[in-house]
Amino acid sequence: MKRSKNSLAMHPQGVIPVLGIDVSKLSLDACMITETVIAHHRVRNDEGGHRQLHAWARAFSPQYCACLESTGSYGEAIAKYLFAEQVAVSVVNPSQTAAFAKAHLLRTKTDKVDAESIARFARAMLLEGQLPRFEARSEEQNELQELVRHRDALVTQRQQMINRNGDAEHTAIKRSNQELIEMIDRQIKQIEAEIRKLIGSQQRLKAQVELLTSIPGVGPVTATTVLAELPAIERFSKPNQVAAYAGLTPRTRHSGSRTPLSQPISKTGNQRLRKSLYMAALVALRANPVMKQFAARLHQKGKAPKKVIVAIMRKMTHLMYAILKHGIPFNPDHIKNIAITN
Questions:
Q1: Quick one: pLDDT at residue 51?
Q2: Of residues 202, 259, 225, the one with CA closest to residue 151
Q3: Structural element, H or E, at residue 84
Q4: Contact, 87 vs 66, CB < 8 A?
């Protein structure tokens, strides 16, 4: 199988030892698999524990590959620490490791078993040349992501309060809910001001936001979400890789002579990015001339509305890739050619 450009390579002498790490808030459960040994170790999830885990792993081999699941902020510190120590690090989607465990009939679920399952998954993917490579993000990217995700959490909280207020009957409860909604509105405005301040202070981020918002259908919220969730555009060599990162590539379902009626998307990508692209696609259907023409052709071919939306989302990732890669704002006269040739 051909190795992906952004995947970890095998050592010339074979598969290097693999360290699987199951992450929790307070601890890290690790499993080291070499050609001859399977060993387990647990450390605290703090700076001292990170140093201890690295020293323990190096006792097996000075070179090893570490793999952990992308499960939020708890694993970011160990991934960054090992990356800084020149360890080959991979952060994978939990649904992939879960599918691997299910395929291998692993019915027991403990932190120790999970760590070993992650290590076995990483070893198998490394052999196929399909283990994704982790790359540390810049401090500005980390700060933008934290701000954008906090804004999203506030927006979700606000909608929950609106829904709750709609069900309330007592006047005092309605008044209380309305006060909370107004407080959240103020917090959202404050966070959005911080996002604008950060972007204004970073020339690269500012230029990228301007490029993305030149696409009809992409507003400041979508642009900042894309930049917060997407790795550096230089990491990708083709627009399809961006679509795959967002979980928008088709998942083939085929058995025997039966042709499936539908090809659902994989969804093994960044859910936040996918959600943002969905909202952008809905707006683009009305405001983006290229997307409107593209959707019309799909409708003429008899494509279902849901499939058209997904196709628009994929096309949007192609446009974003081309625009960011070439530094050229959206122009319906030439942007289609750029997207196709890359």
A1: 97
A2: 225
A3: helix 76-84
A4: yes
Given the DSSP bridges, would you call strands 27-33 and 65-69 parallel, antiparallel or unpaired? unpaired
Give the pairing of strands 38-44 and 27-33: antiparallel
Directed axis angle between helix 305-326 and helix 271-287, to 10°? 100
Instruction: Classify residue 224 as exposed, middle or buried by CB count within 10 Å of its CB (0-12, 13-18, 19+).
Output: buried
Residue 208's pLDDT is: 96
For domain 18-128, give the fold: Nucleotidyltransferase; domain 5 (3.30.420)
145 token code pair:
């992501």
Bridge partner residues of 328 (DSSP):
none
Q: What was the pLDDT predicted at 251?
A: 52
Cα of 172 vs its chain's centroid, Å:
42
Distance in angstroms (rounded) separating the CA atoms of residues 318 and 320: 5
Which among 55, 83, 56, 52 has a CA at the least distance from the CA of 67? 83
The pair of structure tokens assigned to 83 is 């990356």
7, 239, 307, 314 from 250: Cα distances, Å = 20, 14, 11, 10
Q: Residue 125: which of 133, 115, 135, 136 has the closest Cα?
A: 133
pLDDT averaged per 10 residues in sequence order, the chain, 342 residues: 50 73 94 93 96 96 92 84 93 83 72 91 87 82 93 95 86 91 96 96 95 94 94 83 80 48 58 90 89 90 91 92 92 63 48
Q: Is there a contact between 231 and 302 (Cβ–Cβ < 8 Å)?
A: no
d(C-alpha 164, C-alpha 93), whole Å: 33
Residue 17: CB atoms within 10 A of its CB come to: 23
Cα 148 from Cα 133, distance rounded (Å): 24
Pair type for strands 27-33 and 88-92: unpaired
CA distance 327 to 155: 31
Residue type, 18: V
At 66, which amino acid appears?
Answer: A
